[in-house]
Amino acid sequence: MKMNRQKVVIISRNWLPSVKGGAEKFISRVAHYLYIMGYDVIGITRYVRGYDKPRALHKLMYYREDHPAPIISSVRFSLWAGKMTNEVKPDVVIVNSYWGEASPIFIDKDIPVISVIHDVGLFRSEWARRHRLKHLLRVYVLKKVVQKAKYIVVPTPSVKKDIIRFLGADPSKIEVLGFEGVDGPFRRIHVNNGFFDIVQVGRFAPNKDHITVLKAFRQIVREIPNARLWLVGGRPLDPEHERYFARVKALAKEINRSLGIEAVKIVVDTSDTDPYYRIADICVAPSIGEEGFGLTLVECMAYGKPVVASDIFIETGVADPERCVIFRRGNYEALENAIVRLYQDKDLYERIANRGLEFSKKHSWEKVAKIFEGIINELLSRRT
User: Which terminus of the chain has fewer Cβ atoms in its 10 Å neighbourhood, N or C?
Assistant: First the structure.
């Protein structure tokens, strides 16, 4: 492989397969494809003991932690990541900015920074209302980051609108992708197994709202006796998410006990989501906040399966009534009705599945990487 002279550092607090989230998949795929395109890529991330180690074809540097502590761990990583970046002296750095990733603040001013900000709703979410101090701290950090960044890459116009409104970002620095890449077969694949399988793929965190899915499923089995529910996601990293996950497991156990069978199955930290997309009859995406795109929706579409999605994904641009069945976020009765409707109406089922499949074919990680390449070239041209 012919290497470019350009050295690109990519900072992400978490990396595949340690944390299996949409933001981690996005940044890992961007790094991978830039490496394939010939850039000298160095990933800077962390490794939490007990989790899978970060992996990549390119070089990875990681900060080891035994027991992550909220805020403290984030600050430690940001300081270390900034220090490592300054020592590596890259031509450009791409930062997975998350909610308050502060490493750009500690990077030398002559190293251009591209900040990637994924999520919409951070600034007006339930989490923000319940954790006012943490929220204000994160907003303060992100304001500093967007000031420092030469470019800000966001997935959708809704994220751009929020960071202009709440962070005072310069609109001229913002690049809207409008799409993300997708891994999938881009054709209908289905394993017939005698069950009606409902699948949710997403990390176990409060904004993913597994609770609403479980409440809906408790009613759904009355209409669809052979229904099964699969909750597939990465295990939590912080105490609040661990408490939420405990609630999810407790409610799942209660439902299974009442039914006398294991109709709800929880799959944690799977290395491959492909088997679950294959068996899915329907995929659900019930998120109530803090979403910037909705990668798992499009992944499900790429297997030719219909998606039932909360209305937050209309904001991100992934869902619309032509390719998804939409329900009001947090409303388990509306979710139940949407799933039962798809089960009973075969024409609707096929129409939604087919339109989603066609939509998924527009998404490519290579196209995403090409946009980053254009930004990198633009930044480097300014320095010559």
Answer: C
What's the CA gap between 172 and 381, in Å, rounded?
Answer: 17
Give every CB contact of residue 168 below 8 A, 6+ residues apart in sequence: 143, 146
Amino acid at 9: V
Q: How far apart are CA 57 and CA 36, in angstroms?
A: 9
Contact 119, 96 (CB under 8 A): no
> Count of H helices and E strands in the chain?
13, 13
Q: What pLDDT sits at residue 79?
A: 97
Asked if the model's pLDDT at residue 94 lies above 90, the reply is yes
- pLDDT tens sequence across 338-363: 999 999 999 999 999 999 999 999 99
Question: Is the pLDDT higher at 317 or at 302?
Answer: 302
- In Å, how far from its chain's centre is CA 154? 13
State the fold for domain 196-360: Rossmann fold (3.40.50)
In single-letter form, the type of residue at position 272 comes to D
Q: What CATH number labels 7-181+364-382?
A: 3.40.50.2000
3-state helix, strand, coil in the chain (%, to 5): 45, 20, 35
Sequence-ordered list of residues with C-beta below 8 angstroms from that of 244, at least 6 positions apart, any chain: 204, 205, 206, 236
Does residue 295 have a pLDDT over 80? Answer: yes
Structural domain spans, the chain: 7-181+364-382, 196-360
